[in-house]
Records
---
Amino acid sequence: MNDKIKVTIDGIECWTEEGKYIIDVAKENGIYIPSLCHMEGIKPAGSCRICNVQINGRNMTACSTPAADGMNIESNIPELEEMRKAIVEVMFVAGNHFCPACEKSGNCELQALGYRYQMMVPRFPYEFPEKGVNADSKYIYHDRNRCIICKRCVRSIMKDGKHVFALNGRGGEKLHVEIDTDLASQLTEAEAQEAMDICPVGAILKKERGYYSPIGERKFDKAPIGSEIENK
Amino acid sequence: MSKPVVATTSLAGCFGCHMSLLDIDERILELIELVEFNKSPIDDIKTFTKQCDIGLIEGGCCNSENVHVLKDFRKNCKILVSVGECAIMGGLPALRNGIPIEECIREAYLDGPTVSLNEEQILPNDDELPMLLDKVYPCHEIVKIDYYLPGCPPRADLIWNALIALVTGDEMKLPYEVVKFD
């Protein structure tokens, strides 16, 4: 048992191995910590900040903080839940999220968090920023209006050892994800589908697919995001 | 005690939210026992004839007439409810928000691929026509809105639950399936 460590998440004792990220430890123990940028097995980015938890009283991101022996972690507390809701609301006003006109609607993780937190209206004014759409590659659209800059695609979508997506315009409001259209055009249909599935929102969409599942049969139509972890 | 009075309107909307209200099906008989309708496209009363308790607003504000009607509702209703995505965030009409208004009008009346009969190149200019706003505004950016019912359209059960809660004063039921943004 020497290599096992113990952390406490919301009062539940969890045994795990050293070095595992808190968000994954929580998942193994049936505790859902919401996140939009985390992907198991991929280097964390800590970019969405929704997974913030309190560790021994300090706010840390659960996706990028490895569990250490004796940690006392609080996640499901009103202060953090309220902050998470506020971050979701910021994302809705900072982009152009027209849910009724989005092919990802019903399968979108941002929208699902809006449902989980019962966001009836964002508390912040809508920005309606000018973004752009790049539809130059063969199988995918890239719609920056919906991008939340979680960097999942930047970190994971590769072709021949090269990144298909990259951050551009760092250092202010112009920050955005850029697609390498030449490289993206070499993606197979299956790889394009994978890129779409990795995107938590509807920023990466596969062409010629459209609305796929009827309303009522989509991923988050009947049960909230995270319930698959909580009800395991 | 007299029945609570409800008024409804559709601003820059598609009447889908009103259709969803009618989707409460036979409960509409229960509703007319509970409330009285005043200004609304449902009963075709064109102007307020008394102070109302609840105003249901469908659609955002895309022109001066929408703003006028919305302010009139605020004046005449104790409680205003934004019903649907358009009232809450502008909805599909707000897709034009990133495009200059002149470009929108040119596309609609002069340059669009389906424009062929406007040989005299006339743009709408009658004084009777409401002026388009620079962009489409959510209702709560124009007047104070008290409650919000998201959805495109909001599910009939959401509208029903909200009306019942407002009329009875009980806490509103919000099952997961009824709060949707599409």
---
Amino acid sequence: MGSALPPDGFTLLGGRIPYIEGPLKVTGRAEYTDDLQRPGMLVGRLLRSPWAHARIRSIDVSAARSLPGVYAVLTGERYPTPFGVLPITHDETAIAVGKVRYIGDILAAVAAQDEPTAERAIALIRVEVEPLAEHTDPKVGVTPVTDPIHDRGLNGSNVQKEVAQHFGDVDAAFARAAQTVRVRGSFAGVTHAFTEPMATIAEATPDGRLTVWSATQVPHYLHRALSEVLGLPMHRIRVIKPEVGGGFGGKSDPLPHEIACAALALETGRPVKVLFDREDVFLTNHGRHPTQNDLRVAADADGRLLAYDLSAVIDGGAWSSFGTVTTYYNGVLAMGPYRVPNFRYHGRRVYTNRPPSGAMRAHGGTNVRYTVEVALDELAEKVGIDPFELRRRNALPPHSTTVNQFRITSTSFLACLDAVRAASGWDAAFRQLPYGEGIGLGCGFYISGSNSPIHFTPKMPQSTVHLKVDMDGGIAVHSMQADIGQGSNTLLAAIVAEVVGVALERVHVIRVDSDVSPIDLGSYSSRVTFMMGNAARRAAEDLRTRLVRGASELLGYPPEQIRVGRERFEVAHRPDVSVTYLEALHRAMERTGALTAAGAYSSPPMGGSFKGARAGTAPAYSFAAYVARVRVDAETGEYRVGKMWAAFDCGRPLNRLAVEGQIEGSIHMGLGQLMGETLNYRGARLMNPSLLDYKIPMPAQMPEVECLLVGEDDPEGPFGAKEAGEGPLVATLPAVANALYDAVGVRFTDLPITPEKVVKGIELRQREGRPWKGE
Amino acid sequence: MHLDPFELHRPSSLEEALRLATAHAGGFDYLAGGTDLLPNYKMHLNLRPHLIALDAVAELRGRGLERLGAMERLADLERDTELARAYPGFADALAEVATPLVRASGTLGGNLLVETRCFFFNQSHFWRESLGYCLKAEGDRCHVVPQKERCYATFSGDLAPVLMALDAEAELAGPGGRRRVPLGAIYDAAGDGIRRHRLGPGEIVVAVHLPAAARARASAYLKLRVRPSFDFPELGAAAAAELDGGRVRSLAVAVGGLETYPRRFDELTAPLVGEHLSDDRLRAFSEAVMRAVRPVHNTFLAPDYRRKMTRVYVRRAVEKVRERSGAAA
């Protein structure tokens, strides 16, 4: 627990601020999409493909259409315009056109009076297909194949994106290296498993407008996709984001069912709701990419890094989604928190006939971070130095530039290392615990907001915040930033309250509604605190200026002598001379009525000029150093993480409660991918599309977590803050893996690390005659 | 996902329940806690138009050291300290079933007769249709062991192995009368695996009876699963023994979660009676149990790992019994 009062004269920021919507959520009063009702609302249902890859010969919807209670049946050709979250890879359609590409692909959409009728209609649709070759191995898909999944694959292969980058001279670095290590990391696909299944309601009204309520992280990108596919100008579409029960990246693409739902609404003239069950969510996926990484590391005799040589094959599933970004990230996010003078990367993302992969918390950074940190643990052992010492020797200094021209500003990485080393009792434990017990270090680095907005034209700020205050003194805050449970509404309100000097309860964050909310690009790439935070601060300062002017007129002192108190404005050198907030407000309103104010944020230009140089550039980066303690049952391979010490540099934490929640949640999610979560495929078929068979860790598996927030103020972050939403995840996995190595002497490079792999690893080591820690 | 409509009957006596069963023969399921049946119904697995709820039948309730009513809720059994003292292995198993929420509804009889499970069976209608269904529901072939004769779905109850090791008997009532059989006899070891039990049409498990000898035994149950709650067993190992200064007076070992039915290994334990239960003997015995079981690839963990762990879990379960008996190795 932190201290009760925030530091540095703040009243809110830096303290522990409970979520403003908390009381509504815990009493069941918060409104999620499925809670909303519209008069005459129909049930929308989707027919999904039972084929992994097939050409559609015919779809006969006549029987479904003539079923009483059915209002519309749509197939792909009605709205065939392709879309996708990235403008350069529009390869999805709302409903399949010509082909289906995975088991679960949408073949048709039905709107009916109720659920049973909709399901009967779905069952009446007759589809004839010509099966095509199924592609499920991305390593095969890099070569030309029969029946490629998309015609945009490179040279008749299934390669969606290929990245080749080389900075410095990697071969020369390896030629002079005293030490090299190689790690081949294999990562099964995992998915977000957020609490709230996707849900969308759409309603077309006789005034020619379309309103869409949807569980989305990116209302603005949904708004664009709806406009493009449905052929309606954006101003005729209104996108509303109700409460969202988690996203983790899984709701950061505009999704086919959202557009299909809107299409059904246009077709029927009635409101239509599409609500997913858990299997729908699994089939929609967009989770973390199954990945094969091959990393070679070169270092000098003292463990100073000379080069990384990395190649990757990434399983994209059926669509592009964020895949072009993923392919870059899986390389360039290896570029911190260490100085790597030479770097070569060859990454290929390959389409397969499986549910699409996409962005998932610590997108593109998790698997490569694991590969790097396990390699560095191995390198430290080879060099014969402590893993902490190895990291210290290689840490990127503040205000430096990486070889691929990332601009590093603030970093408290060394402070993270020192704090976690001391707190975890590392020096008395590393390699000194009995066989079966272990301690391990893993570090991290992540972008604090993507410097590149996804759409470059027209050029506009990445975040805008509007404020409106009327005579009642309540401050309405408008912004399209998407709170999906991470606490951004609370932060938005707190920043405004802090700057204007009013009680938090005066600030009302208005539900995202494209008719009134100025654009913020949404909740992805850990951008919200940094970008929205800066925009909110500027808007609040703008408002404060007007209020100070009102106070100045009442008090007879010039504005520069007025300072903000608590719900008051005081003369700086005479605090006894003051007016209340409301008095100042009412004076300021005399000429204009309700006050409005605006603030915006655009990130500064940065990055190199080579192809792909923008990928991974961010206005700031977070840093992390985690230590895990594990205990392994060497006979069964079962293991338990007892404690995690999490040192994290998010600059100045603005809401400690939220930051600690993000760290704890990240550790839980990271442990899931490490210990047992896996999208288990047999061929193209997902075997475990349920929360019983998809093994999210239980509360009983959570370790004790000790958060150590050691960042210093970032020069550009709002009040010095950086991100804390994704960076806290990446260090989790390698910390545990390296602790497992310390416990049983086995390097695990195939995730998830199930008990059977632990047993096999120990048996292999024993067969090779390598005893460990007096076993 | 919604439940298709069904007609719910709620008899207040055993006779009435059996009458309803006869009236709706072939078209009903008994409904106990519903924690297994209703999720399966949502997946449209072997739906029946009638459900006969048993929660109002007083004769199916009641718990004591000798008799446990089949409709006793797992949470109530778990809270019964007298039971836990008498049958520590039963208490082990109760605490390992699913989650506290499921145990609040789930019943003893329901757990004994829990539907067998398989990756190819416990799936939505869409999923199963896309594969052409399976032998256990709507189809004519098995996808685990490709053939058309036998289903390999896995028995997934936690309570049967330990109750079998304690020589429990099942009290049954059916339209044809009452009978009492060893608990293991309700499972169909020789069948096609599609039906999970050998109860007659309409027959109900009324209660489980535990003989006096069971109270002279120490017992233990260990469960292998991926997560320490929620998950069905990937392997459950139960042991019960009466030891006389380390010498075996009686010993029974049963496993679940490995095959279509829970299984007791009397032919392997019999030679140990009268012997000192040494570590070496125990290792050899556990090895023999491992060799006897044939898990297939239809649960989360791979079958060879589950087999290997059978050796470890059986050994540890017996060791725990030995510990609880206060006997030395």
